[in-house]
TrEMBL record:
GO terms for cellular component: endomembrane system; nucleus. This is histidine kinase. It comes from Adiantum capillus-veneris. It holds the Pfam family Response_reg. PROSITE patterns: CHASE, HIS_KIN, RESPONSE_REGULATORY.
Length: 1059
């Protein structure tokens, strides 16, 4: 039976710092002064440094900080705010009140102007009609011979056209009669000329203006002398002198006793040119046409036709004499009203001036909006004043509370520092003896022990590792809760991490017959950048839980690109989702689409979806690496067929220290913090974690992580970069052909992927007949990339022990022979090439081993879980002799480390005798010469130039002088010697190269506190690497990586004496 080469898992969360001399000359990664002067650091950094003793006595209560308000009289501020509020309220009231009254002023003005325009328009129309009558009289009475106009005609005409003059009470024509013509005129008219007021015969005047034609409404004016009235006489004089209409001042109309005015037009006996003089106009005047306007009736009729006329009070004034305006319409007295609007009236007489005044009929309403806003401002200011006053009273209480809080803060900081010191001390004090125990147990296992003694030693070693793991989990949980955990960014290979995780649990799964397998998509880059230790911790936690709760079936880990999963989900969602009731009902039915045949909680890892994923990935395989994004989002699933998670326990599954079965009689152990830590780590890595579970069927945990692409897609990662988690697989199997016989296509695909990683061309057969066809054909073609090539002869045939059922694969050789006999075919390939028959099994009992040899599997048996490195080691034993000079052979790692350390003189400095023995034993195992020192002072004495040491492993925590201080003093001595030699060489000027003393110093520590790592980084000028003591025996491969990183810069140049 072929077993895997010795390979020890990486335990603990140790960090490595591999800094060369060139790094030391650059700017430090952290500002030392700022780091040292701050008690609290950024997120992900420690809050205390155990190597610096805090001075609690000097940290008194901080002085209470007083703001500007503290020294200000708060009551004065309240009064100031109140005064400012009153001023602002007054301004706001004035503004909105002004707007309120302005609104009413605008409304009043518009209404008044509208009425004035209408009155003026109506008056203008009437004046035009009077003018037209004057032209009519001049034409048909004065210039017509004989005259065709008499009283009856005039009365009838004016009566029938009165609708054109609705504002006038009547019109009349007065003829101009000189005194010499009076007698003749009276005899012709048949009546004497009378005065207007006494209606008696008019006394003698130079001329008269008796009315000869009148409208029937004012027939009483006939024979009355219009010039007998003083106002009318002046009106007549102005009318004939100007040639325009002239108005009288207001007077009481005789019949109606209403206020009115008379409009007078001069009637000329001939056409007067516009440029005629006043004398010419007076001489040409033959009579006068007048019309009486009842102003009160006129305005009243006008207002009655307007809407809302009752809202305002209208007055019409004659303001020819501005000192004594005469009321033409409206009341004499007004009620007190603040709003008044005046509109100018133009009635066509330039001598007479009129205007209209309008007032609101009631008081203007109070400006409620202004009052509301002003009240709001006052309320707001009052509220602010109350708040300021209350705040002043509250500030006094807060200041007192702040003073007490500062005292508590100092105490809390001291407690935080004490907690960090306690964690560092506990970690160191527990790990130091445990490292000694584990180291000595490993050294004991390297000696000749009988099987019982080996079993005792391995059991003790496993218990010690379990205790270390528990300590790591508790410390990780504490760091997560305090937000002081951080992630690395180093290159690694996720396939190597999966192989390492499978190796960790291979023993238990083999013993219980559980199928454990892993599949990584070809689209996942071979080099990724992230935190491999934390990713391995998550995977190991999930796989460990699956192993713990699974008794039969399989545990399957798959890694794909998240974009491939999403594209398949979008195109074939029906193949992914299955009703929970149907899955629960089908739990007892064996399914051929899963890895082991047992139903799973989710169809994501079933063969139906796997075919879609493989087809999708094959279509995208031709994408150029240069066009791919720099970030990669991985989708990782861990599927098992265990007991599942009860529905009532699912909400608390990610809570720390919570388990699905928390009873004291539970069947499975554990602390209940593994999933909580994993979930937090996934969130820190930019992903999410979830799960599907069906009780008594199984669980499938999935999570995503965001990583950076390494290699060609990321120029910052060179091709020669050493992978933290990675391995070089041998190339000696490239071009070989293999036939995989397995009845389960999903399991067959997993086997095919591991073989293809070794460069082997693979064909698969899912039953006996297909296998016989492959073996009997003389030529077979297989698709390799985009071309078709001949498969040639098979070099190996790999058969799964449970290919078609329990132990059915053992019968494969006999079944093939029987099938060939029935078909009368010859197995040309078996007869001519004799390929190796290899059996793959999860569990092999002693009876199965004997049966396998009898059935023809005499070459080797590969025990699952499959890993490429393990398969390569097994194939090397049966196919190709191991080439010791091949650098890619994984079995040569201890020899590479031996070549690195052989003959080197190394100083180990530690105050603990057990730790010195462990470190010295580990280094001597690989050929190094070791000397020990028990203190920092002893190390300074041994490393004083000149000396023969090639490297130094120094403990950080030592009494009297710790590792940091000792290293600093060693560097000071080396610099002093180097400077002195430089001066001497400059004086001699021999031209030869000089030696610079700078021995590589590797810091050793047993704790995992982040502060220790930060201090190593801060003091890069003195510390090259941090190595955990457990590493010296448990995992020499990682020690080789740490030393190899230094070798690239220092060891190859005389191992510590750089020329």
């Amino acid at each position: 039976m072929c077993k895997e080469p010795s390979r020890h898992p990486f335990h603990g969360g140790m960090k490595y710092i591999a800094n060369s001399a060139s790094l030391e000359q650059n700017t430090p990664l952290l500002d030392a002064s700022r780091f040292a002067n701050s008690h609290l650091t950024a997120r992900g950094k420690p809050g205390a440094k155990w190597w610096e003793r805090p001075d609690f006595e000097s940290q008194g209560s901080l002085p209470s900080t007083k703001t500007k308000w503290g020294n200000f009289n708060m009551m004065s501020l309240v009064w100031l705010l109140a005064t400012a509020g009153l001023v602002v309220a007054g301004v706001v009231y004035q503004f909105f009140s002004r707007q309120h009254y302005k609104h009413y002023e605008d409304v009043l003005g518009n209404m008044c102007d509208e009425r004035a325009r209408m009155l003026q328009h109506q008056f203008a129309v009437s004046i035009n009609h009077v003018h037209a009558l004057a032209v009519l009289v001049s034409t048909f009475y004065l210039r017509a011979y004989p005259s065709v106009l008499d009283q009856d005609t005039f009365a009838e005409y004016t009566a029938r056209t009165s609708f054109e003059r609705p504002l006038m009470t009547g019109v009349a024509y007065a003829h101009r009669v000189r005194h010499a013509e009076r007698d003749a005129f009276e005899r012709m008219q048949g009546w004497t000329i009378k005065t207007m007021h006494s209606r008696e015969s008019s006394p003698a005047y130079d001329e008269y203006a008796p009315t000869i034609f009148s409208q029937e409404t004012i027939g009483y004016l006939v024979s009355l002398d219009m010039m007998s009235g003083e106002e009318d006489r002046d009106n007549i004089f102005r009318a004939r002198a100007s040639g325009k209409g002239a108005l009288t001042k207001p007077f009481r109309v005789l019949e109606s006793n209403h206020l009115g005015v008379v409009l007078t037009y001069a009637v000329y006996k001939e056409v007067i040119p516009p440029e005629a003089s006043v004398e010419q106009r007076i001489e040409a005047a033959a009579g006068y046409l007048g019309g009486a306007f009842d102003v009160e009736s006129l305005v009243e009729n006008l207002l009655s036709r307007l809407a809302r006329s009752e809202d305002i009070v209208v007055n019409v004034y004659d303001i020819t004499n501005s000192s004594e305006p005469m009321v033409m319409y409206g009341p004499e007295a007004f009620s007190e009203c603040s709003l008044l609007h005046t509109s100018t009236l133009d009635f066509g007489d330039p001598y007479r001036k009129h205007h209209m005044q309008c007032r609101l009929s009631r008081q203007v309403p109070y400006p409620t909006l202004a009052i509301g806003f002003a009240g709001g401002v006052l309320s707001f200011v009052a509220l602010i004043c109350a708040m300021v006053y209350n705040a002043h009273m509250h500030v006094k209480k807060v200041e007192e509370g702040y003073r007490k809080m500062e005292e508590l803060k100092v105490q809390a900081e001291a407690a935080d520092i004490a907690k960090s010191q306690f964690l560092a001390t506990v970690s160191h004090e527990i790990r130091t003896p445990m490292n000694g125990v584990l180291g000595m147990l490993q050294m004991l296992l390297d000696t000749q022990l009988n099987p019982a003694q080996q079993d005792f030693a391995r059991t003790a070693q496993a218990s010690g590792k379990a205790l270390i793991t528990l300590i790591n989990e508790v410390l990780d949980q504490a760091k997560i809760e305090s937000g002081r955990i951080e992630l690395e960014m180093v290159p690694f290979d996720v396939r190597a991490i999966l192989d390492d995780v499978l190796s960790l649990f291979s023993g238990k799964t083999r013993g219980e017959g559980i199928e454990l397998a892993a599949f990584v998509s070809e689209r996942v880059p071979s080099t990724l950048i992230g935190d491999p230790g934390r990713l391995r911790q998550i995977m190991a936690n999930l796989v460990g839980n699956s192993v713990k709760f699974t008794e039969r079936g399989h545990i399957f880990v798959c890694v794909h690109l998240c974009e491939d999963i999403e594209s398949v989900q979008m195109s074939g969602n029906d193949a992914l989702v299955k009703d929970a009731f149907e899955r629960s009902k089908a739990s007892s039915i064996v399914s051929s689409s899963t890895l082991s045949g047992y139903s799973a909680a989710n169809k994501r890892s079933s063969w139906d979806l796997f075919k879609l994923l493989l087809a999708n990935e094959g279509a995208k395989a031709c994408v150029s690496p240069d066009s791919q994004p720099s970030e990669v989002k991985l989708f990782i699933s861990v599927e098992d067929t265990g007991i599942g998670i009860p529905s009532q326990a699912r909400p608390r599954i990610f809570k720390p220290f919570m388990q699905a079965d928390s009873s004291t009689s539970r069947m499975h152990g554990g602390t209940g913090i593994g999933l909580s830590i994993s979930n937090c780590l996934v969130n820190l890595m930019g992903g999410q974690m979830g799960f599907d579970s069906i009780q008594n069927v199984g669980s499938t945990f999935t999570f995503t992580v965001l990583l950076r692409r390494g290699g060609l897609a990321n120029p910052s990662v060179g091709s020669n970069t050493k992978l933290c988690f990675g391995e070089t697989l041998p190339t000696k199997f490239k071009g070989m052909k293999a036939l995989v016989v397995d009845g389960r296509p999903l399991r067959s695909e997993v086997t095919k992927q591991h073989l293809q990683r070794l460069g082997i061309c693979v064909k698969t057969a899912d039953d006996w007949n297909a296998a016989v066809d492959e073996l009997s054909n003389t030529r077979n073609f297989v698709r390799v990339g985009g071309a078709s090539s001949s498969i040639g002869e098979f070099h190996m045939i790999l058969v799964d022990k449970d290919a078609w059922g329990l132990s059915t694969g053992l019968n494969f050789p006999a079944a093939v022979q029987e099938s060939m006999k029935k078909g009368k075919r010859t197995l040309s390939r078996l007869e001519t090439h004799h390929p190796k028959m290899i059996l793959m099994a999860t569990h092999m009992a002693a009876s199965d081993l004997e049966k396998a040899k009898l059935m023809g599997f005499v070459d080797t048996i590969i025990m699952k879980p499959l890993r490429a490195r393990m398969i390569a080691a097994c194939l090397e034993q049966i196919l190709v002799p191991c080439d010791n000079d091949e650098q890619g052979c994984p079995l040569e790692e201890p020899r590479n480390l031996r070549r690195l350390l052989s003959g080197r003189l190394i100083l180990v400095v530690d105050d603990n005798r057990i730790n010195r023995l462990v470190a010295a034993g580990a280094l001597k195992k690989y050929g190094a010469d070791v000397e020990c020192a028990d203190s920092g002072k002893a190390a300074i004495a041994k490393l004083h130039p000149p000396h023969r040491f090639d490297a130094c492993f120094m403990d950080i925590q030592m009494p009297e002088m710790d590792g940091f201080e000792a290293t600093m003093k060693i560097r000071e001595v080396e610099e002093s010697v180097n400077d002195k030699e430089f001066v001497d060489e400059k004086a001699i000027d021999s031209g030869e190269g000089r030696k610079r003393w700078r021995v590589p110093i590797l810091a050793m520590t047993a704790d995992v506190i982040q502060a220790t790592y930060d201090e190593c980084v801060r003091k890069t000028v003195v510390v090259e690497a941090a190595v955990n003591l457990e590493l010296l025996h448990i995992n020499m491969k990682l020690l080789e990586y740490s030393l190899q990183s230094l070798k690239d810069h220092i060891f190859e140049l005389d191992f510590g004496h750089v020329k």
